[in-house]
Amino acid sequence: MRVTVIDYKAGNLTSVLKALRHLGAEVEVTDSDLALVESAERLVLPGVGHFQATERLDASGITPAIRAAIGRGVPFLGICVGMQWLYAGSSEAPAQPGLAHFPEPCTRFPDHSEKVPHVGWNSLEVRPGSRLLAGVEPGEYVYFTHSYKAPVTDSTAAVAHYIGPFAAAVEQGNVMGVQFHPEKSGATGLKILRNFLACEGN
Amino acid sequence: MLTKRIIACLDVHAGRVVKGVQFVDLIDAGDPATQAARHAREGADEIVLLDITATHERRQTLLETVRRTARELFVPFAVGGGIRSAQDAGQVFDAGADKVSINSAALADPGLIDAIGRSFGAQAVVVAIDARRDPQAADPVRDAQVFVQGGRKPAGRRVVEWAREAEDRGAGEILLTSMDSDGTRAGFDCELTAAVSEAVGIPVIASGGAGTVAHFTDVFARGKADAALAASIFHFGVSSARALKQELARAGVPVRLPC
C-alpha cells in the first residue's frame, strides 16, 4: 500500500506518518515534487492550524497536480484543514481559495454559546454507503480539535454535533475528507485509515 | 455528543515516570512509553507527559522519551517541561507530541504563546497555570495568585486575567492546577475552575485534588471543566481510566465508552 503525504508546513506531520506506517503503508512525503503527486497511488493531505497555510499548495504549484490526480480517480484523503481545503474556502482566510471540489465554504463555529475550539472526543452519525467509515459503529468516538467546520450536504459521509450539526466526514467517489484526527482516534481512527488504504484508484 | 475528557498525566524525571508529593520523595513508577500505552489501552482520552525537572542538559533525554512514548500511541499526546522557545516546541512536535504545555516560560515571555500558535496552530498550545487562592484579594478566587517554577515563586499575575491573556494570544486550552488542592486528594477546586472556565472561551482542564469518582463529577458539573487530569487516583483505589469513566457514565457524565 503506497501513499503519498503532502507536506505544506501546516503543523506537524509526525502523527499521521506514524499511523500510516503502523498500518503497513509505504509512505512518501513531498512538499513540491510534482512527479511524486503525478505517480501517487493514494494522496493524503493532513493539516492542523490555519487555513492560510494552504497558500503553500498554490505557491509550490502542487494544487493543479492534486486536481489532476483527483480527476484520474486517485484516492484522496484530507484531514482537518486538509478536508476543509476540498471546499471553496474558509472564513478563517477569506482571500485564500480552496480546491472547490465541494462548492460550499467552511465557516467558524459561532462564539459565546460553547467553547471554541471544539476539542475532544465526539460521536459520529455515519451515513449508509461510506467506504471510508465502513465498520464504524454507532456510538464510536473520534478526536476533534478545530474552530472551523464544513456544512452538512449530500456529500457528507458522517455528521457530528457541536453547537449544531456539521460534516465530520465527506466522501464522493475517491475524494474523502475527515474533520477529526483519525491518527489520534485510537482503534476507531486506525480502522478508518485502514479503510482508506484499502481504496484503489480507478 | 462531545464528551468530558479524562487525561492521564505522567510526571517524568530523567526519563522515568515518578510519583511523589510536591516534588519530594520521588518513587520510580516505570517507563513512560509503557505507562502511556497502558493508560491509553485502559481508556484514557489523552496523555500528558510532564518533565518535572527539565533542564537544558536533559533536553535530549526528554526528546528521546517523547519519541519512544509517541511511537505506539494513537491518542492525543501533550508534553510539558523545559519548552522555552518555538524552536524547543518544534523539536517536541517532531518527536511526536501533538500539543505542548507551557507554564513558566509563557509567564516570562507571553509572546511565546503567539509564536507557537502561529507556527503550529492554537490547538497545539496548552497554557498551564498553577494558582493558589489569595485570601487578601478582593476576590480570592478570580484573583488567585499565579505561581511559576513548580509553585515556588509568585508570578505577579492573577488567574483570571492571565487565562484571558493566554486565550487572546492564541492558546488552545488552559491546564489549571489548584495548588491548594494539589496532593490533598480532597477534591478539585471547583470554584477556581469555574471562575476560569467561565472567563474564557477555550477548554479548561482541571488538575489537582482528585481522590474519588465524585470529585470528577463535581468538577465537570460545578467546576464547568471540559476535561480533568487524573494522576494519583489511578494509584489509589480506582484501577483505570475505564473504571473511572464507567462510574462517571453511571452518574450521567458524558464520557467516551466503550474505550
Verbal overview:
The complex is a heterodimer of chains A (202) and B (259). Chain A has helices at 14-22, 34-38, 55-59, 62-71, 81-84, 186-197; strands at residues 2-6, 26-30, 43-45, 76-79, 89-90, 105-108, 118-123, 125-126, 141-146, 148-149, 156-162, 164-172, 175-178. Chain A is α/β, with parallel strands linked by helices. Chain A has one domain (2-198): Class I glutamine amidotransferase (GATase) domain (Rossmann fold, 3-Layer(aba) Sandwich). In chain A, strand 12 and strand 13 form a beta hairpin. Chain B has 259 residues and is α/β, with parallel strands linked by helices. Chain B contains nine helices and twelve strands. In chain B, 54% of the residues are buried. The model of chain B has no long low-confidence stretch (mean pLDDT 92).
Question: What labels describe this entry?
Answer:
heterodimer, A: alpha/beta, Rossmann fold, eight-stranded mixed beta sheet, 6 helices, B: about 260 residues, alpha/beta, eight-stranded parallel barrel
In short:
The complex is a heterodimer of chains A (202) and B (259). Chain A is an alpha/beta fold.
Task: Sum up the overall morphology of chain A in one term.
Answer: globular
Q: Quote the beta fraction of chain B.
A: 25-35%
Which strand order do you get reading across the main beta sheet of chain B?
1-4-5-6-7-10-11-12
Kindly report the average pLDDT value of chain B: 92
Quaternary organization: heterodimer
Could you tell me the mean pLDDT of chain A?
94
Query: How much is the radius of gyration of chain A in Å?
Result: 15 Å
Strand element count of chain A: 13
CATH architecture of chain A: 3-Layer(aba) Sandwich
Distance between the termini of chain A: 15 Å
Strand order of the largest sheet of chain A: 2-1-3-4-13-12-11-8
Contiguous helical run count of chain B: 9
| Count of domains of chain A | 1
Instruction: Compute the CA-based radius of gyration of chain B.
Output: 17 Å
